[in-house]
């Protein structure tokens, strides 16, 4: 009887665990699938509600409205450029600073840590920040997307904490072999920090990709620097303003009613367009989590 109970325990556990994980997957995927269904549904029909996993009246009019302006393609590449450059530079400089202040022999590591951490709690505000950007001649400059966010105090603390968990013997061995601090950082620290770097890279990339307010503040007068999120925000605002007049005209024209876009439908299409690149990139970052964990499992 006891043997049969022991054999049933794994079956019960795996069954309950599978049911639980399926439930988690449904809860996680449903909002995205619902947004996708709304984006593919006719705008005037979406107002009725009741859209769940499949569109009721299929249409591509919402996506046509998103891509109707030719500026959206150029803005997409601006967003890609700022995301890639900012992520790479921020990772390299932040991890370099984290390695420096993780070294106990560095005299100024505590004062620098205090100064960096203070920026997490104190902020001068929007107006002084704007004046600083203006005095640095970064207004209507592509570098305004890169330079202000190169160092993140939170990311620096995360990377420093991870570096402090690495075996000290690795760094000592590298120095015995004649490697300097920079060579040790490039050859030893960076490869072992792949898990935390991949995590921080995702944080930085998502933040850069979703950012539109800095474009509004510092580069709105230069169309060539407009980002995808800023263009989508302008599109959503214009659709909300023009929705009432479109509804009036569609009452006399049934064909126009079928092709009408509403703020709800255009917002769903914008959400899909904005989130799709990140969803495509994430699986490639995920493999570095596992690979980095294997590299980091060093035994002394």
UniProtKB/TrEMBL annotation:
Record GO biological process: transmembrane transport
Membrane-spanning segments: 12-33, 76-100, 112-131, 143-163, 184-206, 264-285
Topological type in the membrane: Multi-pass membrane protein
Superkingdom field: Bacteria
Family recorded in the similarity comment: Belongs to the binding-protein-dependent transport system permease family.
PANTHER family xref list: ABC TRANSPORTER PERMEASE PROTEIN MG189-RELATED-RELATED, POLYGALACTURONAN_RHAMNOGALACTURONAN TRANSPORT SYSTEM PERMEASE PROTEIN YTCP
Name by which UniProt lists this protein: Putative aldouronate transport system permease protein
């Amino acid at each position: 009887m006891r043997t049969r109970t022991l054999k049933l325990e794994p079956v019960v556990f795996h069954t309950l665990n599978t049911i639980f994980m399926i439930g988690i997957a449904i809860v996680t995927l449903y909002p995205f699938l619902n947004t996708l269904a709304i984006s593919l549904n006719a705008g005037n029909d979406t107002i009725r509600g009741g859209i769940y996993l499949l569109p009721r009246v299929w249409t591509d009019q919402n996506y046509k409205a998103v891509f109707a302006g030719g500026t959206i393609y150029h803005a997409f590449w601006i967003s890609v450029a700022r995301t890639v450059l900012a992520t790479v530079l921020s990772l390299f400089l932040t991890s370099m600073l984290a390695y420096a202040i993780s070294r106990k022999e560095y005299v100024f590591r505590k004062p620098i840590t205090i100064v960096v951490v203070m920026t997490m709690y104190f902020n001068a505000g929007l107006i002084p920040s704007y004046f600083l950007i203006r005095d640095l001649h970064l207004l209507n400059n592509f570098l305004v997307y890169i330079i202000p966010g190169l160092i993140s105090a939170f990311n620096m603390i995360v990377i420093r904490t991870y570096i402090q968990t690495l075996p000290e013997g690795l760094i000592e061995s590298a120095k015995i072999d004649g490697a300097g601090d920079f060579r040790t950082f490039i050859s030893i620290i960076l490869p072992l920090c792949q898990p935390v770097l991949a995590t921080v890279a995702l944080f930085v990339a998502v933040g850069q990709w979703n950012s539109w307010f800095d474009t509004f503040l510092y580069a709105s007068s230069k169309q060539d620097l407009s980002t995808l999120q800023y263009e989508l925000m302008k599109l959503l605002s214009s659709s909300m303003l023009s929705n009432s007049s479109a509804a009036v005209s569609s009452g006399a024209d049934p064909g126009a009613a079928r092709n009408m876009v509403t703020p709800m439908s255009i917002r769903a299409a914008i959400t899909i367009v904005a989130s799709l690149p990140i969803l495509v990139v994430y699986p490639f970052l995920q493999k570095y989590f596992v690979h980095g964990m294997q590299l980091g499992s060093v035994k002394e």
